[in-house]
UniProtKB/TrEMBL annotation:
Limits of the Methyltransferase domain: 2-81
UniProt cross-references to SUPFAM superfamilies, sorted A to Z: S-adenosyl-L-methionine-dependent methyltransferases (SSF53335)
Region of interest called Disordered, as start-end residue ranges on this chain: 149-168
Entries under CDD domains matching the protein: AdoMet_MTases
Pfam families from the UniProt entry: Methyltransf_25
Protein name (record): Methyltransferase domain-containing protein
Length: 168
């Protein structure tokens, strides 16, 4: 499981506590320090926006991204999802600038953008709009990469069991 732009690792901790191997990636060394020594978590400090992609050639059965968007790396991010693997992605969308941060367009998804980015994948669920408590405009998608492409990724996968997602 990959927790990308993990911050202090809320998702990484949750998955590791359930016995899954987790790779937690963030640029903030102080935030990552809180994950050091947590069983089952590999910590990778990397500046995702300025250096070589730190996960080149690696694949994960589950990739989780929350509150992070850097479009120049989106294709590389999708490549980290193993064939048959699942992407869970949630971040801010247009409209957020009317109520708070982030407010810059480059950090806000356009309507339906996550669906477009996951074209050809099996979308398990998609939502967009205003959420309450705390108020924020978001898009979220759960999308499974087609399994037909079983290839170079097989040898490098981190394993997670299959589980059903509700179609809501």
């Amino acid at each position: 499981m990959l927790d990308l732009a993990c911050g202090r690792g809320r998702h990484a901790r949750w998955w590791a506590a359930r016995g899954h191997a987790v790779t937690a990636v963030d640029r903030d060394a102080e935030a990552l320090h809180s994950l050091a020594g947590v069983a089952g978590i590999e910590v990778v400090q990397a500046e995702l926006e300025e250096q070589t992609w730190p996960l080149a050639g690696r694949c994960f059965d589950l990739v989780v991204v929350t509150n992070y968007l850097w479009r120049p790396r989106f294709d590389a991010l999708l490549d980290t999802v193993a064939p048959g693997g699942l992407l869970l992605y949630e971040t801010f969308t247009a409209g957020q600038e009317t109520i708070g941060r982030p407010a810059r367009a480059e950090f806000l998804l356009q309507p339906g953008e996550l669906l477009q980015r996951c074209a050809g994948w099996q979308v398990q669920g998609f939502e967009q709009g205003l959420l309450a408590a705390p108020a924020r405009f978001v898009q979220r998608v759960a999308a499974r990469r087609p399994a037909a492409a079983a290839d170079r990724h097989d040898a490098q996968r981190n394993s997670l069991p299959e589980w059903p997602l509700s179609q809501g």
